[in-house]
Amino acid sequence: MSKKKHSLREYESLRALILTGTTTAAAKKLGTSQSAVSRAIAQLEEKTGEILFERKAGRMLATSNAMKINQSLEPLFDSLSKIDQQIWLSPQQEEVLRIGTTPTFAHRFIQKLIPTFLREHPNYRISFEICTSNILLSAIAEQRLDIGITDTQNYHAGVDMTPFLSSYAMCIIPADHRLSQKKIITPIDLAGENYIALIRRLSSRNIIDQVFRSAGVEPQITIETATSISAAIFVQEGLGVTLINPFPIAKSLDDRVVLKPFEPKIEHHSCFVTSSVKPLNSAGRSFQEHIKKHCDDFHFRN
User: Fold this and answer.
1) What span, in angstroms and rounded, lies between the C-alpha atoms of 128 and 117?
2) Could you tell me which of 287, 279, 275 has the C-alpha nearest to residue 97?
3) 147 pairs with which residues across the strands?
4) Looking at residues 156-177, what average pLDDT do you find?
5) Position 98 confidence tier, pLDDT thresholds 50, 70, 90
6) CB 243, CB 168: distance < 8 Å
7) Helix axes 23-30, 34-48, angle to 10 degrees
8) How high is the pLDDT of residue 297?
9) Measured in whole angstroms, how far is the alpha carbon of residue 258 from the centre of its chain?
10) What Rg value do the Cα atoms of the chain yield, rounded?
11) Fold of 8-84
């Protein structure tokens, strides 16, 4: 009887299918055919004598046996990843931490904390990327990044979203505007006002639009923009008003604008984004604690 040999392609197919949930997506990720992925999984099930995936609602759900195998494979694929990326660590160095975040968090929050983090952990190295929320979630799911930070409410298979701070949307108004004296701003107050909106692909835009529709108000949109930073700058220049998550940009606004509570309340959750199939490394866990420590003095939190 011939000995059953290990196959890297079978293990790659297992991991890709756990991550994506369909043989089509797994094949695309691996650059192969759907039939090749199905064949690799069938061969692996034959070798192990275990059922590794169950089909449900058009998706392939990993069984506990598949997850155990995947967990055992982590050291192997970590080593292969380091070879592929030519990351050679000296005895004095520890892990490379790959961080990703959206522009607002990058420029108004994370860039200021990376230097303090490295001063506390001089043996770590950082790779830092700035990208859209959708690209960020995909990069975490595909394990091209270790940890991300965002306030998107989109869902992506293969990632876990762990909130570390909650805040409510606030209305940013020019300091000399007629609404600047009001204690609370409502949708009715904004009827007819020049309004600076986030672009439609952002999850927060959809939520805000629903609030306006429920109040029977149609904002007079003069500008649509992709980031809260640019929306706030447009308000500072007197081009209108806006509704945004005050974290983390509130502290960077000048006295040309005021922030007012908005009702009905729109809650934002700033989250760590991590892989749901690969445990976060020790550098990532240290970075999480560093971020949470520097959120304690945020004045607009829940």
Assistant:
1) 13
2) 287
3) 99
4) 92
5) very high
6) no
7) 100
8) 62
9) 29
10) 23
11) Arc Repressor Mutant, subunit A (1.10.10)
Question: What CA–CA distances, in Å, run from 159 to 139, 146, 187, 221, 254?
Answer: 10, 11, 34, 34, 36
64: enclosing H helix or E strand:
helix 64-84
Which class is domain 96-155+272-289?
A: alpha beta
Q: Tell me where in the chain the CATH 3.40.190.10 domain(s) lie.
A: 96-155+272-289, 170-265
Residue keyed to tokens 């999850």 = 203
Q: Give the span between the Cα atoms of 103 and 22, in whole angstroms.
A: 31
The DSSP symbol for 37 reads: H
For helices 8-20 and 64-84, what crossing angle results, to 10°?
A: 110
Please check the confidence at residue 68 and state whether its pLDDT lies above 50: yes
Which amino acid makes up residue 133? S
Query: Collapsing DSSP states into helix, strand and coil, what is residue 222?
Result: strand
Looking at 3.40.190.10, 3.40.50.300, 3.30.300.20, 3.30.390.30, the CATH number of the domain 170-265 comes to 3.40.190.10
Q: Is 36 helix (H, G, I), strand (E, B) or coil?
A: helix
CB distance 154 to 133 below 8 Å? yes
